[in-house]
Amino acid sequence: MNKYLVTGLIVVAVIGVVLFLVNQDSGVTADSQGSDFDAFAGASLIDYEGNEVSLEDFRGTPVVINSWAVWCPFCVKELSAFADLQKEFDDQITVIAIDRQEPLSKAKEFTDKLGITNDMLFLLDPSDSFYKSIGGFSMPETLFVNSSGEIVVHKRGPMELEEMREHVNKIME
């Protein structure tokens, strides 16, 4: 095979990959049929004190709900930014981080090490019911829900603090 043909094939392949990536979804989705709070409000969750918590308790207020796990490096990196987000917006929003199927000792030890255990609400999801109810397939997954209970943004993949702020501003409108 001559070197020009090989080079041409490589160039075509690279262009194809670049075009594919450019046309990919940014990881931000919003259900045009108006996904709402009811899809996940019934998830059975546990707080760090062992109390059962219903997401239903947060209906009517803007919430940011993040699904994370200690084993997910992108999720872990975001946790401190979510804690900063909660401090910045204070009582205007509630940031909830839901750990997927890990024991309390593992999740709390990790958030203690980061120094953010008391900076936002951490919940445990032993049955992974929340993640399943939102159609989770990547990690992390984050919902930005307005006070009407509408999922305004469903972000799949990691975010920086600035993007989080942009999405919070959308749910505050």
- Coarse shape: globular
Using only C-alpha atoms, the radius of gyration works out to 19 Å
User: At CATH's second level, what is the architecture?
Assistant: 3-Layer(aba) Sandwich
The SSE string, one letter per element, is HEEEEHEHEHEEH
Structural domains: how many: 1
How many strand units? 8
N→C terminal distance: 61 Å
Largest sheet: 8 strands, mixed
Strand order of the largest sheet: 1-8-7-4-5-6-2-3
Name the CATH superfamily classification: Glutaredoxin
The stretches of 5 or more residues where confidence is low (pLDDT under 50) are 14-26
**Which class do the helix and strand fractions yield?**
alpha+beta
What is the helix fraction of residues, given as a range? 25-40%
What's the CATH topology label?
Answer: Glutaredoxin
At the first level of CATH, the class is Alpha Beta
Q: What is the typical, i.e. mean, pLDDT?
A: 86
Number of helices: 5
Percentage of β-strand residues:
15-25%
General description of the model:
- By secondary structure, this protein is an alpha+beta fold.
- It is globular and about 70 Å long.
- An eight-stranded mixed β-sheet has the order 1-8-7-4-5-6-2-3.
- It starts with a helix and ends with a helix.
- It has a single domain (27-172), classed as Glutaredoxin (3-Layer(aba) Sandwich), CATH 3.40.30.10.
- It has helices at residues 3-22, 73-89, 104-114, 129-133, 161-172; strands spanning 28-29, 44-47, 52-54, 63-68, 94-100, 121-125, 141-145, 151-156.
- The model is unreliable at 14-26 (pLDDT under 50).
- It has five helices and eight strands; from the N terminus they run H-E-E-E-E-H-E-H-E-H-E-E-H.
